[in-house]
Amino acid sequence: MQVLGIDIGGSGIKGALVDTNSGKLKSDRIRVKTPPGFEIDNVTEAIVYLIEEFDYEGPVGVGFPAALANGTVLTPPTAHHVAGWVGQSVNDRFSEASGCDVKVLNDADAAGLAEMRFGAGRGVNGVVITVTLGTGVGAGLFMDGKLVPNLEVGKLFLESHEEVVEQYMAGRIKKDEGLKWYEYGERLTEFCLHIEHVFSPQLIIIGGGISKKHKKFLSGDQLKRTRVVPAKLRNQAGISGAAMWADGTR
Q1: pLDDT digits (tens, 9 = 90+) for 141-156
Q2: How far is CA 144 from CA 89, 125, 164, 190, in A?
């Protein structure tokens, strides 16, 4: 089944048709800029525009940068602390505006769903945490392949620092602070050690745009108990996972 998946990022909103049986994109991606103010009406218009560009009328999945419950926003969007989102049913808002059945989930959860079914987490039981490094730090928590939603690890404080994780080792931080790769890798290891201590996962999967350069900062023996591996689907994961969410493929 081909389903439209949309991934809302800090700088761009991307969509593509996805074969939910394989996770593969069945069309070129179309990208529009994320509205700079991230206001509800403007983001809604961008979603509708993408759907119309694909001349599409079926179910639509959307990965959104906030915690959600049944399509209702629970927390301010990451890096876009704009009033008006919390308490909004974005399932209803996006569906009414587009005329399609739109289902929304946390963007990191969407990426994790695809990575667990088709990527580095495939066939792995026990606790697995998928981490998405980008504008913020997102994560998906899985138990025996089943999603436990809204793991907001980007909001955690590391014991040795006075700032939340996403202000310390998000993907954008390397560029913003001019970090060398080994320096960024040290920060990531510190974060992973904290995750290991709190959750004792079998596997941590590192994704997001920066993961394509994983050989520069990631090694397989970073932790004592937990394997740390790069994501396989990388930036495709959010689109694929959103499409899976829309058609019930979990």
Answers
A1: 999 999 999 988 888 8
A2: 29, 4, 29, 26
